[in-house]
Write a structure and sequence with these properties.
The structure is a homotrimer. Helices cover about 25% and strands about 45% of the residues of chain A. With about 150 residues, chain A is α+β, with helices and mostly antiparallel strands. In chain A, strands 1, 2, 3, 4, 5, 6 and 7 form a seven-stranded mixed β-sheet that branches. At the A-C interface, strand 5 and strand 6 of A face helix 1, strand 3, strand 5 and strand 6 of C.
């Protein structure tokens, strides 16, 4: 798969979340997909704790829908800055890679702070229009993520 | 326009500002250009407030010149980390795209802090030597930007 | 040298450090190499102070080995987010470039903070399997780096 397609995929991933286009973000996934957020501490200790887990696209849709309902209690702006892709495997029509991220949040008064840093581990597949996400594992170095009200990372 | 030309343009954009080569930064723009900094809050509410606005290259030159005169009152180092480009449109000789940024500032004692996060919206044109900036709109999630003494974002 | 090879090199550079694969990080360098960390303040004033300096690969190996022994006193997770490459020179089999970085550290309780921002200045050479690092100069805007216990930047 061409590298630029993967970069475009992650650029849109971050920008869709940051612009509150959560429904567009869901559309980046395949129907059969897996989205999971774990802390690095749990991942390295082999603990099963998961902060967020959707194992198909309908669960992602539900998640976004319920987020839309609680959104009013936690208004904020997200901002992802995603680093270069580290390609783990490439095949015709498939690719797996990692990328570091820093996620900042700003409140409505315009105060910004570091919210989470960590790493994506992604499996992508070539679809008709660009690439789609087969699985995204977010391994967050930052541990104290309030899961209920959080937007996806 | 080739993608790598746009990435080079933004790499130089950030590095010119960070290395205090503000005059080089101005040279990245076309004569007929537009550079504008707004807060996200104002942008989303449709408010006309603008933190910085230069609507041609001579204004950018003036801005940098006056910054050079007040610089002694606010010495600091800038550091931009710019994320992957999200291409919005491409045509022969033209391209528009978005990119997230995180801007850190360090004082002369070496203390660093998050200064601003947000998004660039850029229109670029192919010139003789690489690409040039036709317009840059900075939408800052971070609201409290002291505009008088600030370097460009 | 193809651009993508350089991006892959820096992606692996950051990820090897962040995943505590320090030995893999050392393997990115040539035998005859130079790795140096200086503060921006010292660099701009022409001062000779160097926070970390290894002028061949064996010194890097020693550094990592001694870090492994003191590691237990300063457990933390690193996270690099590296910006786009600014190419300074390219030749068949060689390239020099700069890139901005933000380095975050998280303690084992999962609290993350900005640790260092600055710039890499890199000379790379094409090797049998991808590119290798000939020299890396880290110019840190952030000044207060505790050098003894620090992992490489």
């Amino acid at each position: 798969m061409e590298r630029v397609v993967l970069i475009d995929l992650m650029a849109e991933y971050g920008m869709a979340l940051d612009e509150d286009r959560l429904e567009d973000w869901v559309e980046l996934f395949e129907e059969e997909c897996d989205y999971r957020v774990v802390t690095r501490e749990n991942a390295e200790q082999g603990l099963p704790n998961v902060l967020m887990w959707c194992d198909n696209k309908n669960m992602l849709r539900d998640r976004v829908e319920s987020y839309r309902q609680v959104n009013e209690y936690n208004p904020h702006y997200d901002r992802h800055v995603i680093g270069p892709l580290r390609i783990l495997g490439e095949d015709e029509g498939r690719a797996s890679f990692e990328a570091s991220y820093a996620l900042f949040q700003s409140d409505l008064e315009g105060n910004s702070r570091l919210f989470s840093v960590g790493r994506y581990r992604v499996e992508a597949r070539l679809a008709d229009a660009g690439a789609r996400l087969k699985s995204v594992l977010v391994v967050a170095d930052t541990g104290n993520i309030p899961s209920l009200l959080a937007t996806p990372i």
